[in-house]
Amino acid sequence: MTFALEAEGLAKTYGGRSAVQNLSFQVPQGSICGVLGPNGAGKSTTLRMLVGVLKPSAGRIALLGQPLTRRVLQRVGYLPEERGLYRNMTPRAAIAYLARLKGVHARSAFRRADALLESHGLGPVKRKKIKTLSKGMAQKVQVLAAIAHEPDLVIFDEPFSGLDPVNQRVLEDTIRAEAAAGRTILFSTHIMEHAERLCDRIVLIAQGKKAFEGPTRDALALAPSVALLETEGAFDLPVALAGKGFVVQSDGAEAGRRRWRVKLEGPEASRRLLAACVEAQAPLSLFEPARASLHEAFVALVGDRVAHGE
Amino acid sequence: MRQIYLVARREYLAYVRTWGFWISLFTAPVLLAALLFGPVLLARAEPSRVIVVLADRPEDAALVTTAFETEARTTSRAEIKTYLEAAAPNVAPTALAAFDAAPTRQAAGAAARALVARQAPGALRAFPALAPRYAIAPAPAPTIEALKPYLTGARKLADGRMLYGAVDIRRLDGAPRVDYWSINLSQREPADIAQRAMRTVMQREAVVALGLAQTEADRLEGLWPDVTQFDPRPSVGGQVTLRQRAPFFAAILLTFILWSIVFSVANMLLSGVLEEKSNKILDSLLTSVSPLQLLVGKLIGVAFVSATLLGLWAALGGALLNMAASHGGQGLLGQIAASFLDTRLLVAFAIGFCAGYLLYGATFLAIGSLCESLQEAQSLMGPVALVLAVPMMLLAPALDNPNAPMITAASWFPLFTPFLILIRAPSNLSWTEIAGMGAVMSVSLILVLVLTARVFHAGVVNQLSITSLFRKKAR
């Protein structure tokens, strides 16, 4: 397997305070990889080190098989977390300018800017000043500026923040399209659902340290599964299942029904739970084994407090 | 290099495409001309200031009135002399002789003018108007008490003019005493003229008391040697006229131009880097360019903005001066035009402009990179503005004696060199000194750029700011 990005033993300290510690991970070429973690986990610091904006206090970075240099950075696209553009520039000029800084020739840069703006529905505003665009439009322009030079590796820092649900979907499609075009995508987010939908691999970071690295499905497998149950009337499920090895938690009540949440542990736990309910003659109106979420996997890995950035 | 070029190009176009650039391009020369010629034109446009003379003795009043007339005649003669020595040196002696031969000031002016009209008609266009600064009018009231409504502006004179001041000559135990009344407290020239006149009276009276003839006092008073100023430098080698003084005026003008460019550039650089900080575009840029490339690109871009302004102004000014030189020949404007083309001055300006721009420009960029808002930047600009004010404060003593030890020493201090090298250039500043100052500036620039690059890096990459520094210190 070839890697588009390799980080080894990365660390960053600010005046004695450690923001990132001994962080190592790899991103295979052509994959979509998510860097996940709560706010303040060290995601942006890590990404800023990967694109050469910040100098690591320790560690080694290789991009596209080469050590981190200005030259290799020309093949990398980057959307920073704190983003903005020159307000008096047009989207066309801004995209072309950033592409030219990445080594694209003027004519090609403007041609690509035009094509990207047209294909993303921004053709009508491409010659208007950025300060006249809506926030969502400006953010789209910025995303396009990060990919206008057709980079081999694209790094997005919290690309979904500030976007409405419709534009979040549009951005997800853009990321998928870029990956389909053979580019490697690395993005950070603290919203796990985006990573669940998009990523082949994830790197979980908490308090500046790596908590997990691997395929998304492996991370999900780490999360405890649960089943959601609903019983009619005042049936007491915890009492009925007592001594059968299940942890039952109340999940509320509504219109003469009680909802329960049962942890599923061990092989065929779901089938065993259903059998136990039948045996206890539970008046079930709902039995739904729930799919584990990345958030639950993250909580399982680092604990509830750390997972919520406390 | 490509990155620096692209940053500089964007910076340049960002300013050149604004309305403000074009407005300053066209308004600045107009404003400069207004600043230069405005006071002269205003002074010429001002009507003569009306003075009345009261005196216990009529002969004292007559003497003071004559003194004002003599003062006006002397001033007119000096104006004609200065003008003709620059505009038509060949006719100056004969015109002045004609002036001196005429009985009254008006007649003297007319005689000189008529001679110039005959012998050098080209020099007649800007011939001095010769309006007297003060005009003596008959007093509308016999006492100061009665004159007060006129002096305060409550009443006007019979001919509608305002009364500027009143000179009251009183005799206390026979000794003259001059009281000057006016609401214009900052100006006491009429009192000085009256004082000089009464001094002559006192001298006459003293001579008579010693038993000498009164005419002897007038003869003694009339003893006044002629003074001619010379410049010993071989390149000049002669009498000092406006032509020799013109380079000093040119140096002052260039110093002001440099100073105003440094100040306008400060705003451009500060607002430019603050825009990038507040628009959060720096992280996007920093994956493509290094902080040093960004710094240098910005400096070059804004330098070209200044150079464009300067170039267009120089082209405009050069065309006008060239026109003046070709039409005026040895005339006033022709001589001023020639003074700008002095090699020493041009080299000094080139060093001063490059060094001053880069030194202060880099400092402003560093300040901008440490600020989070325009308000913060402007408050930080205060101390820098004070430093920039120092060369302007040294301007007057530098013109008084450009080679004074303090001015010579200050001109080697890198913060002041760009300005003082210009002021000192016309006063025999050697090429060795110019080269030495250039070398000192080069070394200083390298140091400043290295330091600025570090500060800039900390400001734009690590988001270091004055506020965060103070917060850290407070903790």
Question: Which SSEs are present, and which pair or pack?
Answer:
The complex is a heterodimer of chains A (310) and B (475).
Chain A: E1 3-14, E2 17-28, E3 32-36, H1 43-50, E4 58-63, E5 66-67, H2 70-73, E6 76-79, H3 91-101, H4 106-119, H5 135-147, E7 153-157, H6 165-180, E8 184-189, H7 192-198, E9 201-206, E10 209-215, H8 216-222, E11 225-232, H9 237-240, E12 248-254, E13 257-264, H10 269-279, E14 284-290, H11 294-302, H12 304-307
Parallel strand pairs in A: 3-8, 3-9, 6-7, 7-8
Antiparallel strand pairs in A: 1-2, 1-4, 4-5, 9-10, 11-13, 11-14, 12-13
Chain B: H1 2-16, H2 19-45, E1 49-55, H3 58-87, H4 92-101, H5 105-119, E2 134-137, H6 144-151, E3 163-172, E4 175-181, H7 189-209, H8 214-221, E5 230-231, E6 238-239, H9 242-278, H10 282-286, H11 291-328, H12 332-340, H13 343-369, H14 374-393, H15 395-400, H16 405-410, H17 417-424, H18 431-460, H19 466-474
Q: Can you give me a brief rundown of this structure?
A:
The complex is a heterodimer of chains A (310) and B (475). Chain A has 310 residues and is of the alpha/beta class. Chain A is 35% helix and 31% strand.
Tag the structure with descriptive keywords.
heterodimer, A: 310 residues, alpha/beta, 6-stranded mixed sheet, 4-stranded antiparallel sheet, 12 helices, 14 strands, elongated, B: 475 residues, 4-stranded mixed sheet, two-stranded antiparallel ribbon, 19 helices, 6 strands
Would you kindly provide a written description of the structure presented here, covering whatever features stand out?
- The complex is a heterodimer of chains A (310) and B (475).
- Chain A is of the alpha/beta class and 310 residues long.
- Helices cover 35% and strands 31% of the residues of chain A.
- Chain A has helices spanning 43-50, 70-73, 91-101, 106-119, 135-147, 165-180, 192-198, 216-222, 237-240, 269-279, 294-302, 304-307, and strands spanning 3-14, 17-28, 32-36, 58-63, 66-67, 76-79, 153-157, 184-189, 201-206, 209-215, 225-232, 248-254, 257-264, 284-290.
- The longest helix of chain A is centred in the middle third of the chain and has 16 residues, at 165-180.
- Chain B is α/β, with parallel strands linked by helices and 475 residues long.
- Helix content of chain B is 69%, strand content 7%.
- Chain B contains 19 helices and 6 strands.
- In chain B, a hairpin with a 2-residue loop joins strand 3 and strand 4.
- In chain B, helix 4 (92-101) packs antiparallel against helix 5 (105-119) and helix 9 packs antiparallel against helix 17.
- The longest helix of chain B has 38 residues, at 291-328.
- Chain A binds chain B through residues 48, 51-54, 70, 73-74, 76, 78-88, 97-98, 100-103, 142, 145-146, and chain B through 2-3, 6-7, 10, 14, 275-276, 278-281, 283-290, 461-462.
